[in-house]
Backbone:
């Protein structure tokens, strides 16, 4: 699957194709549709720190995975040894607040 980050201003960011990221058809389709809808799209490297700090500050409002098998699936938590951040409306019990 591929991963997308939705920013507060509506910008959609996905990791650029560096050789280890698959140029998936779902990724491509979302980038094209977002552009058609007038959303700003960025293909660039995204660090785990940017993800964690972006969710904490509210700069990143949503994260989703996509792929033919994954469809478009919200990512609700980023978890690491000793901590986690919840993303968007996801609650700690694995459900959705709304
Ligand atoms: C490593 C990897 N990334 C991304 C994808 C998603 O690609 P697609 O959108 O073409 O299904 C897949 C699908 O199998 C995959 O294996």
Residues:
């Amino acid at each position: 699957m591929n991963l997308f980050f939705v920013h507060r201003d509506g910008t959609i960011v996905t990791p650029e194709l560096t050789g280890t990221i698959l140029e998936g058809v779902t990724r491509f389709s979302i980038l094209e549709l977002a552009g058609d809808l007038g959303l700003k799209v960025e293909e660039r490297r995204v660090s785990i720190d940017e993800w964690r700090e972006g969710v904490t500050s509210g700069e990143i409002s949503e994260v989703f995975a996509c792929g033919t098998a994954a469809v478009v699936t919200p990512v609700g938590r980023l978890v690491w040894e000793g901590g986690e951040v919840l993303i968007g409306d996801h609650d700690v019990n694995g459900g959705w607040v709304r």
Observations:
- The two ends are 25 Å apart (CA to CA).
- Residues 1-2, 22, 24-27, 67-68 surround pyridoxal-5'-phosphate (CB under 6 Å).
